[in-house]
């Protein structure tokens, strides 16, 4: 018997046909029904079907066992305002309350976008708490945040690139507010540069940011020379290279970013639009490559939380998320 879509928080989970204690579950998955309500223009690539596909994939036999599903809470104003300016937060709320509107050429809201964005940001904060609380009694655990809208393009006072709040940075600063976290590594393998993430953390040596992305491509940032205060490692690469080249170069940057600097927490901006055949880009990764990347990050031996970002070909998205979550489970 497999547990199917229990999106309220549970204390037990079905595993191998038996109900076992929560703390023995392998990977936490956080999501919320509200994230399906956010919609932009007709035909927009960042659509509710993306999240539906992921939820179906992770609930499939052979995957669901070992996952614990949690209903994502709303982000608090305190958590949001560590990253975003209060007038901007109010603007997103008020625009949604008025029925929605256009924020930039690629990004808009509807009446349900505020609720979705609150849950998307809150999911990451809760995932960090769950991961740091641990699954095995020694403070180590992993989580996947299956939400939308995504976040890595969002700036302190500006939505862009399908993103409203910067979910991964909200989670990073919630973690750093704790006494047990002093160093956070953010790895962004979405095919587009996480310009919002970089802008929000590039003056903070407590966060190291590594990004592999297609160059040139939207949003036009992410040159290798952009180093922040020595805490930013950008890996811009052209389309069409062999997958092994992208993997090698990203792993090399991760090695540089963590030389003599061991993180207490690893966060992944896990976009799957770097996969071969994605309609918005030209990288060539396959699902198997996310297994190796995830296992390398798990090797730090600290909690890891992956956040859904891009990925617009639904079969690819299913395969990439499944590979990542299964790798988290194998190395928890």
Summary, kept brief:
The protein is an alpha/beta fold.
Q: What distinguishing features does this structure have?
A:
alpha/beta; Arginase, Chain A; 8-stranded parallel β-sheet; 9 helices; 12 strands; 33% helix; disordered N terminus
Integer average pLDDT: 91
SSE pattern, N- to C-terminal: EEEHEHHEEHEHEHEEHEHEH
Tell me the radius of gyration.
18 Å
Structural class based on helices, strands and sheet pairing: alpha/beta
> How many alpha or pi helices?
9
Unreliable spans: 1-25, 135-139
- So what's the CATH class? Alpha Beta
Count of all domains: 1
Distance between the amino and carboxyl termini: 23 Å
Strand content: 15-25%
So what's the overall shape? Answer: globular
Number of strands: 12
CATH fold field value: Arginase, Chain A
Largest sheet: 8 strands, parallel
CATH superfamily: Histone deacetylase domain
> In what order do the strands lie side by side in the largest sheet?
4-3-7-12-11-8-9-10
CATH architecture: 3-Layer(aba) Sandwich
The amount of helix comes to 25-40%
């Amino acid at each position: 018997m497999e547990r199917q879509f229990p999106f309220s928080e549970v204390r037990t989970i079905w595993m191998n046909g038996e109900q076992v204690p929560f703390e023995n579950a392998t990977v936490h998955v956080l999501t919320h029904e509200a994230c399906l309500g956010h919609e932009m223009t007709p035909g927009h690539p960042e659509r509710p079907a993306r999240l539906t596909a992921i939820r179906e994939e992770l609930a499939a036999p052979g995957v669901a066992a070992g996952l614990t599903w949690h209903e994502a809470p709303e982000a608090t104003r305190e958590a949001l305002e560590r990253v975003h300016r209060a007038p901007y937060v109010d603007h997103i709320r008020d625009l949604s309350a008025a029925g929605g509107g256009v924020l930039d050429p690629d990004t808009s809201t509807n009446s349900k976008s505020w609720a979705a964005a609150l849950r998307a940001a809150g999911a990451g904060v809760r995932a960090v708490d769950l991961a740091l609380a641990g699954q095995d009694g020694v403070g180590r655990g992993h989580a996947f945040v299956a939400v939308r809208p995504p976040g890595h393009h969002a700036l302190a006072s500006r939505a862009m690139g399908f993103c409203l709040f910067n979910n991964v940075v909200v989670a990073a600063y919630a973690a750093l507010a704790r006494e047990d976290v002093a160093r956070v590594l953010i790895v962004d393998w979405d095919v587009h540069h996480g310009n919002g993430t970089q802008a929000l953390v590039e003056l903070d040596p407590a966060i190291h940011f590594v990004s592999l992305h297609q160059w040139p491509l939207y949003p036009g940032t992410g040159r290798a020379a952009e180093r922040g205060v020595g805490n930013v490692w950008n890996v811009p690469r052209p389309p069409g290279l062999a997958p092994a080249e992208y993997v090698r170069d990203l792993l090399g940057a991760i090695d540089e970013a963590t030389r003599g600097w061991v993180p207490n927490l690893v966060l992944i901006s896990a976009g799957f639009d770097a996969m071969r055949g994605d309609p918005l880009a030209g990288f060539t990764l396959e699902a198997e490559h996310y297994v190796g990347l995830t296992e390398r990050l798990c090797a730090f031996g600290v909690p890891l939380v992956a956040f859904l970002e891009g990925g617009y070909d639904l079969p690819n998205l299913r395969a990439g998320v499944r590979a990542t979550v299964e790798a988290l489970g194998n190395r928890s």
